[in-house]
Amino acid sequence: MRPPTEGRLIRLRAREPEDVPVLHAWAQDPDTIRFNESRYPPSLQAMRPRAELHPTYDHARLAVVDRESGALVGDVALHTMDPESRSGFIGLLIGPEHRGRGYGTDATRAICRFGFDMMNLNRVELDVIASNERALHVYAKAGFRVEGRRRACYYHAGAYEDFIMMGMLRGELTEEG
Asked: Which residue of 52, 73, 145, 151 shows the fewest CB atoms closer than 10 Å?
């Protein structure tokens, strides 16, 4: 059985200060801004404190690295919103130059395993912009199910977009096959 912090392609690790310049560069990418609801690109100085947060039960933010090379390929976060209900919310960013290679699906599966196996969560959920077809595919492939839609709730570049709400319960995670 694979450790919860490892996938077929990736490994999750604590974020380090040297990750900040790479994360900052990714945060300037138009698709990253749009699909991560950041709206405004952050400054390098503003990103530093977030990168140095130590993972805790209520907020585990981890770097996604390639298992073979150790190169940073993404960033993932799991927030426990309701500890009594053992429920968490995930967010994922794969760097623009690393998209389309399977890292997103592998990182999604790893952070969910981490939540279920290490944090004893019963449920993991997320929101995704309806036009983000790549993310919808990744999350469905990992086992997330559509649970609802928030209509016209996100404004970006002159248009309103829907959010798709997705969730997964313990036992519903699909592993690579």
From this structure: 151
For residue 175, tell me if it sits in a domain.
Answer: no
Which residues have a Cβ under 8 Å from the Cβ of 70 and sit 6 or more positions away? none
DSSP sequence for the chain? ---TTB-SSEEEEE--GGGHHHHHHHTTSHHHHHHTT--SPPPHHHHHHHHTPPPBTTEEEEEEEETTT--EEEEEEEEEEEGGGTEEEEEEEE-GGGTTSSHHHHHHHHHHHIIIIIS--SEEEEEEETT-HHHHHHHHHHT-EEEEEEEEEEEETTEEEEEEEEEEETT-PPPP-
Residue 2 lies in a domain: no
Nearest to 127 by CA among 85, 82, 77: 77
**CATH of residue 104:** 3.40.630.30
User: Residue 119: inside a domain, yes or no?
Assistant: yes
pLDDT-derived band of residue 34, with 50, 70 and 90 as boundaries? low
The residue range of the domain holding 87 is 10-126
**Type of residue found at 90:** I
If one counts the domains in the chain, the total is 1
**How large is the average pLDDT for residues 68-88?**
91
Q: What is the pTM of this model?
A: 0.90
User: 157 lies in a domain?
Assistant: no
